[in-house]
Design goal:
Layout lengths: L17 H6 L4 H13 L3 H12 L13 E2 L4 E2 L43 H9 L3 H6 L1 H18 L12 H7 L5 H17 L1 E4 L5 E4 L33 E3 L5 E2 L5 E2 L1 E2 L11 E6 L4 H8 L10 E3 L6 E3 L6 E2 L5 H5 L1 E6 L12 H18 L8 E3 L24 H7 L14 E4 L29 E3 L32 E3 L3 E8 L2 E6 L2 E6 L7 E3 L2 E6 L5 E2 L28 E2 L4 E7 L2 E4 L9 E4 L4 E5 L4 E5 L3 E6 L1
Parallel strand pairs: 5-11, 9-13, 9-14, 10-13
Antiparallel strand pairs: 1-2, 3-4, 6-7, 8-12, 10-11, 15-18, 15-21, 16-17, 18-19, 19-20, 22-25, 22-30, 23-24, 25-28, 26-27, 28-29
Helix pairs in contact: 2-6, 3-8, 4-6, 6-7, 7-8, 11-12
Organism: Nonomuraea corallina
Pfam families: Amidase_2 (PF01510)
Protein name: N-acetylmuramoyl-L-alanine amidase
Length: about 625
């Protein structure tokens, strides 16, 4: 979420010449790991395992991660950890309920100093003699820096520079940067599980790297105690036992002037079923973001925060209660929100494997517990949440942005995004190859916002008015009422995302058209490098005799359902048109509900349920709703 965080972004660095970086390591990435392991007397399997958990061995074109980490070893170099929000105040009210009084601005918490976990590149430079620029930009130098750090950590706890990987458990745990014992243990356990099982892949810049399995490892966990880390605060957390998780409660208090913050007490799922899990990014660092959610005067809240470096989780709100997180009260009342440390763009463009893994374990745990389907219609980004009214569509958020790897995430969830159907199926699932799909964006550099972003892996495809590369982008009249869609990293108006399902509107050569916001939208989908896969299933079309069908951003009950004393919440169509001849994929039914909760005392809270039947559809980049009586449901094979 773009919110008022008391931080400043990590300095944006010049783009790296990948060709020059590869020339510096003529024998490839694998040779760089071997050489660094030998030089600093670190077992190569340990070096490879740590790097995989941090970066999956990728170089990321020299751009920093979402918490200031560079290169395959994620050497951190935070330029600053204080200041003001660099995006400005968002127009979105995270509650998404216009029946409430407006929230006053809240003061941001005082920013902490730079923690050691965000300054490892500085220490690596001291240990290796490499310049900071080389440690950021040259993968081989970066790997040397990581190996030097591991050896330094090993010595600091009195452990031997042993050939036995199991002796390096404490140093690996320290590499996580965690200050909690449980978080450090989780990171080390994941590294050693990776070493035991082995991994192999081609990196983002074309290097083939292999970690051969090392079965039968005997981890010497006693070294962990040498780190002197604080014990966890796990009492009361709703997390799987396989992740590092602590309880840091969100603020809940009455405020001057009759207001309160910063979430609502409820009794879910007894009162309302939880149907969605919403993936956000913080637009900031973990520490300051947690400080914000602890403040009852802050205008937003969420259930969980996840740290980038080690995947550590802080739970703030019980699943039964409602966070002010998605900007749509209907979605808020029926969802759980996860905030991931990081930034949508501005050079901070990649997420660590450690955070992906803990997030996926948490989401799978929550989804199984609450019956949330593991698909992209219910595990959604904040950018997939619709506006509630025509006036709120334009200000809705864009996170986690195009650089979140949805395909990898769903594989970790145990629900990989497989094709379903034949090559001429009436529906498709967007699924470009994340590693090779590098569409053009601008807006990643705050100092030069019109400059092109570096060519980075992304989960989206551009949608055009005609089947040709130079055709204009399709329009989104909600985001741009009088203007064109943008190639900005912050504008999803003409983008479809991995895992989203759309009805096919046409095919021509290497191009496929889908129905999108009331228009045909074409994307490049060559058979030699497909960006979508077949996905047959249920679709909806306007009921015969109807020229157009209204689409909604919330599934609120009809007026007759509201009891005395509960103001009617209008069911207002959005500005889009769903016309006869168009087809959209069906995600399933949506309950007609409104959770009335505008008081600090939850005794007066109640759920209003209606008889109107709604259906959820994939209408554009965001999910939307139609009334069941307005459409006909058919199967598209």
């Amino acid at each position: 979420m773009r919110r008022a965080l008391a931080i400043a972004a990590v300095a944006i660095l010049p783009l790296v010449d990948v060709t020059a970086a590869r020339a510096a390591e003529p024998d490839g990435r694998q040779a760089a790991f071997s050489a660094a392991a030998e030089e600093f007397q670190v077992p190569e399997s340990v070096l490879l395992g740590v790097s995989y958990l941090e970066s999956r061995w990728d170089a990321h074109a020299g751009t920093p991660s979402n918490n200031a980490g560079f290169g395959p070893m994620h050497l951190t170099d935070a330029a600053a950890y204080s200041g003001s929000n660099h995006h400005g105040e968002s127009p979105e009210d995270p509650r998404g309920d216009e029946s409430r009084q407006a929230l006053p601005p809240a003061e941001a918490p005082e920013a902490p100093g730079i923690p050691a976990a965000l300054r490892t590149l500085e220490r690596a430079a001291e240990l290796t003699g490499e310049s900071r620029d080389r440690l950021r930009a040259d993968p081989a130098a970066n790997i040397r820096g990581g190996a030097a750090l591991l050896a330094d950590y090993q010595k600091s706890i009195g452990a031997p520079l042993s050939d036995d990987p199991g002796q390096w458990y404490g140093a690996v745990a320290k590499y996580s940067g965690a200050d909690q014992e449980e978080a450090a243990r989780f990171f080390a356990d994941e590294v050693f599980a990776t070493i035991a099982s082995g991994e192999r892949r081609v990196t983002d810049d074309g290097h083939r790297v292999t970690l051969d399995p090392v079965p039968g490892l005997d981890k010497v966990t006693a070294w962990l105690k040498k780190l002197g880390l604080r014990p966890p605060r796990r009492d009361g957390v709703e997390c799987p036992p396989t992740v590092s998780c602590e309880w840091i409660p969100a603020g809940y208090a009455e405020l001057p002037g009759g207001g309160y913050g910063n979430h609502d007490l409820a009794n879910r799922p007894a009162s309302q079923k939880i149907d969605y899990i919403v993936i956000h990014d913080m637009e900031g660092y973990f520490g300051p973001s947690v400080g914000l959610v602890e403040n009852p005067a802050y205008r937003a809240s969420w259930h969980y925060s996840l740290r980038s470096s080690d995947g550590h989780i802080a739970q703030h709100i019980k699943a039964k209660d409602v966070g002010w997180q998605a900007g749509n009260w209907y979605i808020n009342a029926k969802s759980i929100g996860l905030e991931h440390e990081g930034f949508l763009a501005e050079g901070h463009t990649w997420y660590t494997e450690a955070m992906y893994r803990t997030s996926a374990r948490l989401v799978r745990y929550l989804a199984l517990r609450h019956g949330v389907p593991l698909d992209r219609a219910h595990i959604i980004g904040h950018d997939n949440v619709p506006g509630t009214l025509p006036t709120t569509v334009r200000g809705m958020h864009e996170d986690p942005g195009p650089f979140w790897d949805w395909a990898h995430y769903f594989k970790l969830l145990g629900a990989p995004l497989h094709p379903f159907g034949g090559p001429r199926s009436g529906a498709v699932m967007i699924r470009p190859d994340f590693e090779t799909n590098k569409p053009y964006f601008y807006g990643c550099d705050r100092q030069n916002p019109e400059a092109a972003c570096p060519p980075l892996p992304a989960h989206t495809v551009w949608l055009r008015t005609e089947p040709r590369e130079d055709a204009p982008l399709v329009k989104d009249i909600g985001k741009h009422p009088t203007g064109e869609s943008l190639y900005s990293v912050y504008d999803h108006s003409a983008r479809a995302s991995t895992g989203q399902r759309y009805a096919v509107a046409g095919r021509q050569g290497d191009w496929t058209a889908i129905w999108y916001l009331g228009q045909k939208a074409w994307f490049h989908n060559p058979a030699s490098a497909p960006t979508a896969v077949p996905s047959m299933g249920l679709v909806v079309t306007p009921r015969p005799g109807l020229a157009t069908v209204p689409v909604y951003g919330r599934a609120y009950p009809e007026q007759e359902a509201y009891p005395e004393g509960v103001p009617y919440q209008a069911v207002t169509p959005l500005q889009y048109t769903f016309s006869a001849g168009e087809t959209y994929t069906l995600a399933g039914p949506a309950a007609a509900e409104y959770y009335r909760a505008v008081t600090f005392d939850p005794a007066g809270h109640q759920v209003v349920r209606g008889r109107t039947k709604y259906l959820q559809i994939q209408f554009g980049h965001r999910i939307m709703f139609v009334k069941a009586d307005d459409v006909r449901v058919t199967f598209s094979g």
